[in-house]
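Backbone-to-sequence.
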């Protein structure tokens, strides 16, 4: 299976409309060379451009949805189109990922569960998702998470319990915590015996330099490929059948003990 992670640069001097057009072109360029294409988190606005969330928020089937659906169809790829600030007419804003099939149909939407910012930013401006999302591809089952979710292993345990074999994590991860990015991607791969495809952004979001360094990790925790700090398309070929083989050879997941009681006082 071939995957292309599009580590697009997000900078304030480029409009959302211009970047959307550029992203479509980058997706189209993967035609014939990728089965799965992944874009980063909130690449339309920037993950730290909090003031733009409200002004640039879209309905689910808004301009980014339409552009990405067409791009997936024209390129003939499964497309994780990263995430957008979604405006729910009956609720708050959400950080919502869109996944399209090669025919351009929406295969799934995932609203980010863990919102970053503590008492500011995304944590107060956006609502929290409540549902785990997996998507069955011909070669593998994807489990979907977003950026800050990477710090919460129980979410990934839930995805694996739902059948996930390949974990896809678009992000807008800051440079100052880049070491955590690589460490956590490898940890999620090892503990879940799954591939991890983690796609970040380049550039600067509202004055926050981005880590870049998108990464693909195999179920043993080995790094198959990693990008640099700038805009780049990271392409890698991997064998999803490895997951079943490794889980059979080293069946650690069978020894999970869930629902433990807290200590008695």
């Amino acid at each position: 299976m071939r995957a292309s992670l599009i580590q697009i640069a997000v900078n304030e001097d480029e409009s959302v409309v211009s970047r959307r057009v550029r992203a479509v072109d980058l997706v189209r360029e993967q035609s014939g060379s990728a089965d799965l294409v992944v874009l980063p988190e909130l690449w339309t606005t920037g993950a730290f451009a909090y003031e733009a969330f409200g002004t640039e928020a879209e309905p689910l089937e808004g301009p980014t949805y339409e552009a990405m659906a067409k791009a997936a169809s024209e390129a003939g790829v499964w497309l994780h189109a990263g995430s957008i600030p979604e405006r729910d007419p009956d609720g708050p804003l959400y950080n919502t990922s869109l996944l399209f099939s090669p025919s351009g149909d929406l295969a799934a939407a995932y609203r980010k569960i863990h919102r970053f910012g503590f008492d500011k930013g995304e944590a107060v401006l956006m609502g929290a998702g409540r549902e785990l999302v997996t998507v069955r591809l011909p070669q593998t089952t994807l489990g979907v998470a977003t950026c800050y979710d990477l710090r919460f292993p129980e979410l990934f345990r839930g995805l694996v319990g739902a059948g996930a074999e390949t974990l896809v994590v678009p992000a807008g991860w800051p440079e100052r915590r880049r070491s955590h990015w690589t460490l956590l991607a490898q940890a999620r791969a090892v503990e879940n015996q799954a591939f991890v495809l983690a796609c970040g952004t380049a550039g600067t979001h509202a004055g926050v330099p981005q880590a870049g360094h998108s990464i693909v990790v195999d179920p043993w925790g080995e790094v198959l490929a990693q990008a640099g700090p700038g805009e780049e398309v990271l392409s890698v070929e991997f064998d999803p059948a490895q997951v079943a083989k490794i889980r059979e050879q080293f069946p650690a997941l069978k020894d999970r003990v869930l629902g433990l009681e807290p200590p008695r006082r």
